[in-house]
Amino acid sequence: MATVVAPKDFSPVEDAETIKKACLGLGWGTDEKAIISVLGNRNSFQRKLIRLAYEEIYHEDLIHQLQSEITGDFERAMCHWTLEPADRDAVLANAALRKSKPDYRVIVEIACVGSPEDLLAVKRAYRFRYKHSLEEDVALHTKGDIRKVLVALVSAYRYDGHEIDEDVAISEAGLLHDDIYGKAFNHDELVRVLSTRSKAQLNATFNRYRDIHGKSITKGLLGDPVDEYLGALRTAVRCLRDPKEVLRRAIHKEDTDEDALSRVIVTRAEKDLKEIKELYLKRNNISLDQAVAADTDGDYKEFLLTLLGNETS
Amino acid sequence: MATVVAPKDFSPVEDAETIKKACLGLGWGTDEKAIISVLGNRNSFQRKLIRLAYEEIYHEDLIHQLQSEITGDFERAMCHWTLEPADRDAVLANAALRKSKPDYRVIVEIACVGSPEDLLAVKRAYRFRYKHSLEEDVALHTKGDIRKVLVALVSAYRYDGHEIDEDVAISEAGLLHDDIYGKAFNHDELVRVLSTRSKAQLNATFNRYRDIHGKSITKGLLGDPVDEYLGALRTAVRCLRDPKEVLRRAIHKEDTDEDALSRVIVTRAEKDLKEIKELYLKRNNISLDQAVAADTDGDYKEFLLTLLGNETS
């Protein structure tokens, strides 16, 4: 369930005017709290209408306006939040690829957490925005085995029904075990199974794997912790099997990774952030709200807490 | 341009009734000519409405009805024709995969001839009809290098804009040449470039290849004529560069391949069959109509000639 609190009644024009006024700031600089109070409490459809109203009234893109008024982590999180979800994922994917060391976790999350239609919408948005396919940019910025698995995962257009084939689950559980046991991690079969089978089928296969071999497939994929290829395979298995746990892990780190924290909160606040919060509390013995409050500050902190469902002060 | 001749005015209900009457046959068996005269002269939207009207009036699927009334090549061609285009390609792909020796050409054609959106529509139809993704069924029915290239090609969701990057064209022309010259045909780079780049970009790359190396890339991919993997790569390059020529080749064989003949006429009659006919005449010194008339007979012949734009007798 969502954590973001959005009113049923709202006026896109009034909201656009409130934001403009907050940006003008009446001599005291930008009124960030007003911006948070409006945009942090609107769902994606409402934000879309506000952005359209803003463009219509002020002939200016709301996101460009925000970029010129606010800065740092707060700016990045607010701009990502204001984008439409598929377009936001396209921007996140591109940013992850352009890092000096591409962040493969973001690519795996985008490829494996959502539905096949979600991924397709991201690929469409990516093509529109960057004039390349997501696949070719993934290929451009990576190489070797990690490239093979990432290109296959973003290329997937899986079946999304619930039917499963038990025989396939058993035979492919054996096949995955052969690959892993033989440490043939870059074997094409492993990549092929992970990137073409439906989530329901993969879950059946992972379950059979555990039944037959007495341990989970992710255990078999443990290895050198800095081996990105194995990391990508483990992340993919987890995203396909239990995305909420992956997202909880992404935000639970010794050193808070601002990118991951902001990404998970912004992308999940309208989806399943409530369940991720529950899982976080259960596993970490501290609520996500407390963790965010301790690790962040200022407008950025207030914005994230608003998306987490806290009343704006 | 299309060859099929469809009237502007038509009545789905009248057409459905005409077909039903033709199937009942009034004691003389099915009236195939009447069926050809109706369905062979309707475009895909009109056929869809006729199928809906037929279902509504007779509580029976038109295609099931046709299957129980007609037989052989004529039945297959007529049923394919009556299906919606994306669904038809899904059926053709499945049939090609289920052959004792899968027909990779059909898969490559479906993956590379149409637009990225066309391929996506086929993949959607395939999932709906067979409860598997096209990717997983391609992987199931093939193996080795041919599997690698076919899975990658059907997974593609290319950028479809016209922008090209000349630097990429030059560097990838070199990369393809290195792969081919080194006879590393199963090299991942070759498959990656062919399956992720936009058609415009690939055409630029193929042109640079020819400029730099003095011969076409398909020449470099010549080899053992029974090597399916090389054949698939050549077909893919041709489909991406000049689909009409591939389709012309598909129907020009010493022994007429009924599958290919029927497939090309049925799938292209509403698209570019006119240009394919022109190309056929230019290269083969005989018109496609004459070739079809000489190689086929009966209702099947009459149906194909109708789709080729000949008046129904």
Automatic annotation (TrEMBL), chains A, B:
GO terms for biological process: response to cold; response to heat; response to salt stress; response to water deprivation. Keywords: Annexin, Calcium, Calcium/phospholipid-binding, Metal-binding, Repeat. GO terms for cellular component: cytoplasm; plasma membrane. PROSITE patterns: ANNEXIN_2. Ca(2+) 3 binds at D295. Ca(2+) 2 binds at K253. InterPro entries: Annexin (IPR001464), Annexin_repeat (IPR018502), Annexin_sf (IPR037104), AnnexinD_plant (IPR009118). Ca(2+) 1 binds at G27, G29, E69, I251, A293, T296. GO terms for molecular function: calcium ion binding; calcium-dependent phospholipid binding; phosphatidylserine binding. This is Annexin. It comes from Salix viminalis (Common osier).
